[in-house]
Amino acid sequence: MRRTVREIGWAVRGACRGSDPELFFPPAPSVEQESRAKAVCAGCPVLDDCRAYAVRAAEPEGIWGGLTVKERRGLRFPAGWRQRAAG
Ligand code: SF4
């Protein structure tokens, strides 16, 4: 049987376990929903592991480690990275 990431390792200790999945993966994201999800993440004991995984895996959707997709992309590709890579 294939396990999902939420069933292995650090994920079983996540504060979001048991939360409504639509809070973290909403069909229509909003600032209010993001704030509510981030508030759950703020008290999560595995926030660092979750964030590191999501950035490394380039998770394409949802709130992971207290960050949105755009915020995670910003960690992977900081401002000016194209110029530094070309230079
Ligand atoms: S940091 Fe947020 S998304 Fe990640 S396991 Fe914790 S509560 Fe869930």
TrEMBL record:
<dbReference type="GO" id="GO:0003677">
    <property type="term" value="F:DNA binding"/>
</dbReference>
<dbReference type="GO" id="GO:0045892">
    <property type="term" value="P:negative regulation of DNA-templated transcription"/>
</dbReference>
<protein>
    <recommendedName>
        <fullName>Transcriptional regulator WhiB</fullName>
    </recommendedName>
</protein>
<keyword id="KW-0238">DNA-binding</keyword>
<dbReference type="GO" id="GO:0046872">
    <property type="term" value="F:metal ion binding"/>
</dbReference>
<dbReference type="GO" id="GO:0005737">
    <property type="term" value="C:cytoplasm"/>
</dbReference>
<keyword id="KW-0408">Iron</keyword>
<dbReference type="InterPro" id="IPR034768">
    <property type="entry name" value="4FE4S_WBL"/>
</dbReference>
<keyword id="KW-0004">4Fe-4S</keyword>
<keyword id="KW-1015">Disulfide bond</keyword>
<feature type="binding site">
    <location>
        <position position="16"/>
    </location>
    <ligand>
        <name>[4Fe-4S] cluster</name>
    </ligand>
</feature>
<feature type="binding site">
    <location>
        <position position="41"/>
    </location>
    <ligand>
        <name>[4Fe-4S] cluster</name>
    </ligand>
</feature>
<comment type="similarity">
    <text>Belongs to the WhiB family.</text>
</comment>
<dbReference type="GO" id="GO:0047134">
    <property type="term" value="F:protein-disulfide reductase [NAD(P)H] activity"/>
</dbReference>
<comment type="function">
    <text>Acts as a transcriptional regulator. Probably redox-responsive. The apo- but not holo-form probably binds DNA.</text>
</comment>
<dbReference type="GO" id="GO:0045454">
    <property type="term" value="P:cell redox homeostasis"/>
</dbReference>
<keyword id="KW-0804">Transcription</keyword>
<dbReference type="GO" id="GO:0035731">
    <property type="term" value="F:dinitrosyl-iron complex binding"/>
</dbReference>
<dbReference type="Pfam" id="PF02467">
    <property type="entry name" value="Whib"/>
</dbReference>
<feature type="domain" description="4Fe-4S Wbl-type">
    <location>
        <begin position="15"/>
        <end position="74"/>
    </location>
</feature>
<dbReference type="InterPro" id="IPR003482">
    <property type="entry name" value="Whib"/>
</dbReference>
<keyword id="KW-0805">Transcription regulation</keyword>
<feature type="binding site">
    <location>
        <position position="50"/>
    </location>
    <ligand>
        <name>[4Fe-4S] cluster</name>
    </ligand>
</feature>
<keyword id="KW-0963">Cytoplasm</keyword>
<feature type="binding site">
    <location>
        <position position="44"/>
    </location>
    <ligand>
        <name>[4Fe-4S] cluster</name>
    </ligand>
</feature>
<keyword id="KW-0479">Metal-binding</keyword>
<dbReference type="GO" id="GO:0051539">
    <property type="term" value="F:4 iron, 4 sulfur cluster binding"/>
</dbReference>
<keyword id="KW-0411">Iron-sulfur</keyword>
